[in-house]
């Protein structure tokens, strides 16, 4: 395995650990980390349900923390690793932050926006690559929603 793949897997595993934190708190298991010069400068997980706030996606929180750390909204020397394909809101934040590369795990066939925006003409473009540790990331999401459905079935039986 070459160093680039090992690095991508390493950083995606950090994001996966963040996603697991979200799941433990009852939130959709999405985790993210921002990497600059091969060092993690920020990491986060979804807090949308926990804080009852629609914009608290892992990507938004991680970008906010990274911007604070670097004292700049421009993260053009940074990469973002996220377990689930970013939505339209998050892609907007990614482009605004000028993140260089976005690596995501599972594809979001309903709300994923990376492919829709990549070919548009913006003042900045980010490179998107999906499928990094895809099985692990997909399993986190599918198990989370499976457990919710089973829990609802159990409540309806009683």
Walkthrough of the structure:
With 158 residues, the chain is an alpha/beta fold. Helices cover 49% and strands 18% of the residues. It is built from 6 helices and 5 strands, in the order αββααβαβαβα. Strands 2-1-3-4-5 form a 5-stranded mixed beta sheet.
Describe the protein's topology.
Elements: H1 3-24, E1 31-36, E2 39-45, H2 48-51, H3 58-70, E3 78-84, H4 88-97, E4 101-106, H5 114-118, E5 127-129, H6 134-157
Parallel strand pairs: 3-4, 4-5
Antiparallel strand pairs: 1-2, 1-3
- The helix/strand class is alpha/beta
Q: How many helices?
A: 6
Radius of gyration: 16 Å
Uncertain parts? none
The largest sheet, given as strand count, sense and whether it forms a barrel, is:
5 strands, mixed
**What's the order of the H and E elements?**
HEEHHEHEHEH
Question: Which keywords apply here?
Answer:
158 residues, alpha/beta, five-stranded mixed sheet, 18% strand
Q: What's this model, at a glance?
A:
By secondary structure, the protein is an alpha/beta fold. It has helices spanning 3-24, 48-51, 58-70, 88-97, 114-118, 134-157, and strands at residues 31-36, 39-45, 78-84, 101-106, 127-129. The N and C termini lie far apart (51 Å).
């Amino acid at each position: 395995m070459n160093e680039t793949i090992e690095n991508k897997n390493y950083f995606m595993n950090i994001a996966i650990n963040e996603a697991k934190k979200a799941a433990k708190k009852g939130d959709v298991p999405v985790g993210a980390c921002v990497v600059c010069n091969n060092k993690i400068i920020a990491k986060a997980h979804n807090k949308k349900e926990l804080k009852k706030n629609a914009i608290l996606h892992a990507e938004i929180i991680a970008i906010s923390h990274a911007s604070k750390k670097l004292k700049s909204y421009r993260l053009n020397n940074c990469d973002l690793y996220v377990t689930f394909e970013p939505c339209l809101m998050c892609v907007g934040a990614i482009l605004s932050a000028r993140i260089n590369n976005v690596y995501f795990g599972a594809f979001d066939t309903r709300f994923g926006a990376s492919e829709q925006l990549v070919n548009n003409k913006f003042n900045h473009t980010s490179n998107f690559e999906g499928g990094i540790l895809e099985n692990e990331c997909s399993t986190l999401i599918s198990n989370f929603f499976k457990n919710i459905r089973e829990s609802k079935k159990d409540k309806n039986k009683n």
